[in-house]
Design a protein that fits this description.
By secondary structure, this protein is an alpha+beta fold. The protein folds into two domains: 2-98, Zn peptidases (Aminopeptidase), CATH 3.40.630.10; 113-286, Alpha-Beta Plaits, CATH 3.30.70. It has nine helices and 13 strands. It has helices at 36-55, 78-84, 86-89, 132-135, 142-151, 174-181, 187-194, 207-210, 253-266, and strands at 2-5, 25-27, 30-32, 65-68, 95-96, 112-113, 115-124, 130-131, 216-224, 234-235, 238-247, 273-282, 285-286. The strands form five sheets. A four-stranded antiparallel β-sheet has the order 9-11-7-12, with helices on one face. The longest helix has 20 residues, at 36-55.
Length: 295
């Protein structure tokens, strides 16, 4: 069974696009369009490979396709669909097309995917926006408080400070870590491509390990107060942030969501109120490299 999805992440900010986001354009020998690499291109590749095998009568087994349109918002209905269609979806091997290659010169097989816990937080101070010249320095600024709370979610070594966050993280052997770091990776090229001077992250782990085998916590968006053109000396009533946590075996998204909620509410100072909302989650999965299904 081949799994993929055709929905995409929001295209905002639209003003940064050189061409309309959902109108494909050809530049050189590549197609640029929203979702061409995540995940429509991979789905199309598998469909065309299936088509060629059918045409030349070289298909070695039965093939099923399950392509959905809710992956980017948590696949709310997929679980129900799978449970109700166990017989139709039965397969010996599931091939997930929503992965990546190390490079065009290095064909790759992805054997694990990190999970997700996606949260939204709201910090409220005064009951209305205030003039910073009149109230600044006496009333808590929710934007300032939110920044302080978020900053406290990592320690000086880049580790997440939520109590219990690492309790179920499965430790990898030295052999497994060595194998991961043998994959082709050029740190200088990585930094050059991203336009950064240096990488960062959890102390004691390489960049490859940080992006593959370690859990993370990142702010995906933060807003509050006035952000339009010109100046407005406002002390905002509310500030918001969206925060995602990538998970690894054996973390459970619902448990991490609960731990985050409890901790974020606990670290809120008395001069603000905090609201925490869970959006969606997903479980990490790894196929052992010694299994026949991963070969």
């Amino acid at each position: 069974m081949v799994y993929g999805h055709y929905d995409v992440q929001p295209a905002d900010p639209l003003e940064l696009w050189d061409s309309p986001a959902f109108e494909p354009v050809i530049k050189g020998d590549k197609i640029f369009a929203r979702g061409s690499s995540d995940d429509k291109g991979q789905v199309y590749m598998h469909v065309k490979a299936f088509e060629i095998m059918m045409k030349h009568n070289t298909l070695p087994c039965n093939v099923k396709f399950m392509v959905e349109g809710e992956e980017e918002v948590g696949s709310d209905n997929l679980g129900t669909f799978v449970k109700e269609n166990k017989i139709r979806l039965k397969a010996d091997i599931i091939l997930i097309s929503d992965t990546a290659l190390i490079s065009l010169d290095d064909p790759s097989i992805t054997t694990g995917l990190r999970g997700l816990s996606y949260m939204e937080v709201e910090v409220t101070g005064p009951n209305r926006d205030l003039h910073s010249g009149v109230y600044g320095g006496a009333v808590a600024n929710p934007a300032n408080v939110l920044c302080e709370m978020i900053a406290s979610l990592h320690d000086e070594n880049g580790r997440v400070t939520i109590p219990g966050f690492y309790d179920k993280v499965a430790a990898l052997s030295e052999g497994e870590r060595k194998a991961i770091n043998q994959a082709p990776f050029d740190l200088d090229a990585y930094k050059k491509e991203l336009g950064i001077e240096e990488v960062t992250g959890e102390k004691g782990y390489t960049t490859v390990e940080r992006t593959g085998i370690r859990p993370t916590l990142d702010v995906n968006g933060i807003w509050g107060g006035y952000s339009g053109e010109g100046a407005k000396t406002v002390l905002p009533s509310k500030a918001h942030a969206k925060i995602s946590m990538r998970l690894v075996p054996d973390q459970v998204s619902a448990e991490i969501t609960a731990l985050f909620t409890k901790h974020f509410q606990a670290i809120a100072p008395k001069y603000v109120k905090v609201k925490v909302q869970a959006h969606h989650g997903g479980e990490p999965a790894v196929t052992p490299t010694s299994s026949k299904q991963s070969i």
